[in-house]
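Folding problem:
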Amino acid sequence: MGSVHLSYLLLFLTAVSVVLAVSSPDGSSDSHWLLRIKSKLVDPYGVLESWSAGTSICTWNGVACSDDKSHIVSLNLSASGLEGPISPEFAHLTSLRVIDLSDNFLNGTIPPALGELHNLEELLLFSNLLTGEIPLEIGRLRKLQVLRIGANMLTGQVVPQIGNLSELRVLAVAYCQFSGKIPNEIGNLKQLINLDLQQNSLSGPIPEAIGGCKNLQNFAASNNKIGGKIPFSIGQLESLEILNLANNSFSGSIPVELSHLSNLKYLNLFGNELEGEIPFELNQLVRLETVDLSNNNLSGTISLLNTQLVNLQTLSLSGNFLTGSIPSNFCLRDSSLSLIILADNKLSGNFPLELLNCTSIRQLDLSSNSFGGMLPRGLDRLESLTDLLLNNNSFTGIIPPEIGNLTNLEDLYLFHNMITGGIPVEIGKLQRLRELYLYENQLSGSIPRELTNCSSLTRVDFFGNQFSGSIPDAIGRLKNLVILQLRQNELSGPIPSSLGYCRKLQKLALADNKLSGSLPPTFRFLSELDLITLYNNSLEGPLPESLSLLKNLSKVNFSHNKFSGSISPLAGSNSLTALDLTNNSFSGPIPSELALSKNLTRLRLANNFFTGELPSEFGQLEDLRFLDISFNNLTGDLAPSLAGLKNLGHFLLSSNEFSGEIPTWLGGIEGLGELDLSFNNFTGTVPAELGNFPKLLKLSLSYNRLSGVIPPELGNLTSLNVLNLQRNNLSGPIPSTLQKCQKLYELRLSENNLTGSIPYEIGSLSELQVILDLSKNHLSGEIPSSLGNLVKLERLNLSFNQLQGKVPPSLGRLSSLHRLNLSYNHLQGQIPSTFSGFPLSSFMGNNHNLCGSPLLSCSELKGHERIWQLSKASVVGITVAIVFTATVICMVLLYIMLRIWCNWRKVTISCSETSGFESKSREGENWVYGEEIKSGQYWNKTSPVSSKEKQISKGTCMFHLSVSSSDSTEKPLV
């Protein structure tokens, strides 16, 4: 009995000695070092609570001991939420074979002291926050089989010392920031099975030495900057099953040697610069399941055949320059090919009927090629099809009704083709259909009601077709609809009220149609609506008040309709970023509540009937970049608070009734690119502060009542394209500083009171193209010859000024000019011959001093001047002769009359003795004759006259009319 007790005692002492050997606090036991390591870690989840000096180390969480309990051989604390550095004191745990600290929040560097762990076989530090470089001492871990340190922030190079790890099977350094070349020493790793270098910044070529990794099965180096040619030595890796070199800079051709990789299942060369043809020899890789050669520069025809690659499931050749069509022997009837992506090539011909043999296809993408012809009616043979992408081709004909038999179809992309006809009603059988894109075709007819049976639809896009009729009343059955795009068709009638029951709708585009009626009140249910565009329709009536409930609205465009009333219902969304209500009949004040939409960047309210002032609260819209309220009836001054619009790029207020002075605070909006205050009642001067806009492209202040001079500071607007100051009361000279506006292509200063000469510097504005209009001012001096440098100018108007001198011959170089007006000045001399094609009105009003076509030639003008000079001399001579002759005649007549008077006196005396009858008869004759030469009162008598008197009257009337033109308006006798 005593011996039994003794044996138990010995066993107990042995156990205690083992425990003491492992956990004694003498500074040399594993427990001591683990507790020191614990002290440097943050343990938010209490994973290390069991680590206590009073317990056996072999019971501690994550710790595994050797069989004799004398040392720890494995430490697994992965995904424990630990924070802090990796302690160098791990070096004292010399028996460790496995360290797994992956998926934590460890920081700092990988301690070089880990190189002392000569028994270490697995080191897993991936998915932490480690920084720094790989320590060179890592090469001393001769027994290491697994090194996984990826998904950290490690930098530097993949050190050559890794080539010393002759037992290494797994090297995973992906998702870090490593740079430099892949070391040649990688070829020393004869036992390597998995090499994962992807998602770094490695460069240079893959070393030919890679061929030494005879056991390599997985080689992934995608998403780096590796270049050069793919080394032929990769063809020696006969065990290779996965080769992923995607998204690098490989060039040259695909090595034929890859056909030696008889075990290869996955080949991904996506996103490189490979060129040439696809080697036909790759068809020998009968175990291939996935091939992705997309986004390269490959050319030639498709040479990969499913008839030989019998295990092929995925083939992606998109984004190349492949030509021809699908080979006739491409597909096996019993193949397992499920995904074919041939998009973005130059493939042509009709729809490849060979593909209909691949009945296992689930995804078929032939988009962005040059396929044409009609879609085959046998498409329903692809009964497993879930995704059919035929967009961006030249397919014609109709959508075959058999498409309704593809009951597994989820995505149908037929957009940007030339498909005609209507949507077959059979489409209503596609209960799994989620996305239907038919936009930019020539489809017509009505949208079938059967479409609303596709209850899984989330996206419908029919943009740019010729659909007519109304939107189906049952559209509200599409409860999962997120996007409805029906823009640019010929749809008419009202918006169905059931649309409000598509409660998941986020984007609604019904613009560019012929819709009428008012907005249905059911729109209040579209609480997730983000975008709504209804522009270019005939919708009318006031906006429903319930629109204020749509708090997620960010983009709204109701422009070019007939809406009326207030816009207050649209002022309720705090998410609003763009609102366009241009060309409607909205009235009343602009609601200040719009300022609550702090994210508003674009606000267009032009061409309405808004009244009142521009709300001062708009100054709170710090992100507003585009404000257009032109063509309304707004009044008042611009409030100082609007100076808060610091990011405004377009400020358009034209055609209103704003008054007061143009505020100087506008100069503080440095990013302004367009300022249009034209057609208002602004007074005062043009503020010099308007010269503070380095990005301003257009400045229009025309048709106001501005006075004073044009500030020379406008010359600081070096980006300006358009300057329009016409129809004001501006005075003074044109500032020569405008020469600094070298990007001007339109300059209008007409209808002002500008004086002085045209600055010579204007001729340096070489980009001036649209117009130079300085008409209707008081400009004087000569036309500067420098204007001949404006060779791009299309219209030049200098009319109605006081310009003088000759038209500079240099203007003849203006070959782009198609409108010219130099009229009503004081110009003279020869018109350049190149102006002969302009009308006479271009030069009239210059006091006959201009010559040349279309006016008189200069030689004819001189001839006329000589004739005019001779005529004046002749007139003087003739005048003198007439006066002299008239004097002589008068003297002769006076002499004759005196002689007659003397004779008459003699006859009177001699006739005093004749009978009374004769005397009476002569008196009668004298009476009649005397009346004849009177002023015409006689012919106004209305009393009857004898026939004799009529004869006399008739004769004397004719005489009288010929003598006295003043009586030509008398009434004739009746």
